[in-house]
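forwarding from the other thread:

> can someone predict this with XIL?

sure thing
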Amino acid sequence: MRPSRRALIAAAPALALAACGHRDVAQPLPPARPLKATARFPVGTSLMTGELQEPQFVGLVRSNFSQITPEWEMKMERILGADGSLHFEAADQIAGFCRDNGLRLHGTTLVWYSQDPPAFEALKDNRAAFEAKLREYIGAVMGRYKGLARGWDVVNEAVAENGDGYRGGVWAAGLGDDYARLAFEMAREADPGAVLFLNDYNLEQMPAKLNSFQRLAERLLKAGAPLTGLGTQSHLDISLAKGEAGVAIKALARFGLPIHVSELDISTVGGDFSLGGDASRLEAQARIAGEIAEAFAVLPAHQRYAFTVWGVRDKDSWLRGGKSGHPDDQPLLFDDDGRPKPALSAIEAAFARAK
Ligand code: XIL
């Protein structure tokens, strides 16, 4: 139920404080309309099994999202042991959560330059064995979630950091420059019904990288690879200039393939910018969120694979941890306490307008 106008006026002082960025103040924001209720396409989030123990997290996922990407636990470094053994406990738990809740699964990731497991390192000088091992791995992982996983990131982050060329890690060492085409073919054999993605990041911020990404997609398609989807991770930050958030989606649309905004977050501390307090940062974030949502929502229906956010509450974000993480970052759509943020409203408004 939406609060009455009177209730909102009564709450005005607290709302004002919230707008000033006092994050500790209870913010009686009106309940947002569940995101998935506004969208005509799947709306996704990433998650980890640990989060499934938290009722608030699970409640927010159930009401707002219709697709799940395992944030880490379906990646090769989690599944594949050094001795070649396969470990599906965590991935199965996420798949079970999807089944129990009628959620679509998006699998990530099969071949990623940054993961070079020992089981493959050991084979990189034996091409036939390397190829057989990769076919076996892709077959086992995709086969296990066939029917549930609507699509997979088959090749992740193949374009070099600044867009000048390509990178393949152990995959290129073992299979040569053709490794991406081979991976797509193996993926099609494993699950002919899945949408198969080439996925990358910084496509919004770096024209050179977007350009190289498109050249790679063209090359793969020309070589007959079953590349059937394009993913833009969309790890953005609030320094992004007006109009830039939708640039990658607009450029990629010309391929006519399904597009996945696959890992959206909008850092409020990254980048080179000089904004004031929390409120203006959250406003800048909402502006960018609205722009990318709008660019996605106006795509033809068959190109709207899914719009995925990389986590639920700010405190769940990977940008809070790790070496380059920042404890004050607020990159997601719900705050630490699970309350909707302006970025969520901006996305909803863009989705609603595009109907
Ligand atoms: C990140 C996860 O968020 C982390 O939890 C994990 O430790 C490392 O990977 N690009 C990608 C994602 O393709 O898989 C990354 O996810 C974020 C950057």
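The chain has one domain: 5-13+33-352. thats all i got for now
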